[in-house]
Amino acid sequence: MQMHSLAVDAPADVHVWRVDIDLDAPLEGAGAGLLDANEIARAHRFMRHEDAARFITLRACLRRLLAAELDIEPPQLQLDVDTNGRPSLAMPHAPDFNVSHSGAHGLIAISFKRRVGVDIEEARPSFDWRELEASVLHHADKRVIDATPEAQHSGAFLACWTAKEALLKAHGEGIGGKALTMTSFSVLPRNGVRYAVSAEAGAFEAVSIEAPEGYAAALAWSAVSRSSCESNHDA
């Protein structure tokens, strides 16, 4: 397991790390002294070893990073989960954070000032973007992708998809949310690393971020403070 701090085109309060995961690492003793009993039990309920390895690795790294930000010991952190399955810290003035993983890599984003979301996706050989097109693309996104050379369509779609997932996670909706859906907003075109997020997504921004070869990754954040986001979301 290795963890790398990434340079991202985002506000200074937003920090992102990439985690490289050893999918063959033994589970015995993994996460000891970092994860609580419920997390260890959850890891051992996964049917596939690699899924358990991803969960333990990302959760252990997340606890280390949050503990360092808050100057406490990792086991002292109490993580709650909201109705959308998004974890948060059960303490006042805690940072917002988000986690994503795919294949042998994961991402963690943390900010004390705004909501954040990350997504990373592996471009598997069997990936057929056309199967997901109708459930992901806004008509504006489709127009941009269709205008690119056909050989670039799959990569353009994967990048668009990661940006949308990161935005939904930052928004607090998650995939399948009722207030905001994949097709209800657009993120294309992209200027360099920065996505053109449409007004339907609210006051949020998104960028592509450095990813290993064969992967696409994105970061999203609220343009306004977390308190403003939560007030608008609850209204």
UniProtKB/TrEMBL annotation:
<comment type="similarity">
    <text>Belongs to the P-Pant transferase superfamily. Gsp/Sfp/HetI/AcpT family.</text>
</comment>
<dbReference type="InterPro" id="IPR037143">
    <property type="entry name" value="4-PPantetheinyl_Trfase_dom_sf"/>
</dbReference>
<dbReference type="InterPro" id="IPR055066">
    <property type="entry name" value="AASDHPPT_N"/>
</dbReference>
<dbReference type="InterPro" id="IPR008278">
    <property type="entry name" value="4-PPantetheinyl_Trfase_dom"/>
</dbReference>
<dbReference type="GO" id="GO:0000287">
    <property type="term" value="F:magnesium ion binding"/>
</dbReference>
<feature type="domain" description="4'-phosphopantetheinyl transferase N-terminal">
    <location>
        <begin position="34"/>
        <end position="109"/>
    </location>
</feature>
<dbReference type="Pfam" id="PF22624">
    <property type="entry name" value="AASDHPPT_N"/>
</dbReference>
<protein>
    <submittedName>
        <fullName>4'-phosphopantetheinyl transferase</fullName>
    </submittedName>
</protein>
<dbReference type="GO" id="GO:0005829">
    <property type="term" value="C:cytosol"/>
</dbReference>
<dbReference type="InterPro" id="IPR050559">
    <property type="entry name" value="P-Pant_transferase_sf"/>
</dbReference>
<dbReference type="Pfam" id="PF01648">
    <property type="entry name" value="ACPS"/>
</dbReference>
<keyword id="KW-0808">Transferase</keyword>
<dbReference type="GO" id="GO:0008897">
    <property type="term" value="F:holo-[acyl-carrier-protein] synthase activity"/>
</dbReference>
<dbReference type="GO" id="GO:0019878">
    <property type="term" value="P:lysine biosynthetic process via aminoadipic acid"/>
</dbReference>
<feature type="domain" description="4'-phosphopantetheinyl transferase">
    <location>
        <begin position="115"/>
        <end position="219"/>
    </location>
</feature>
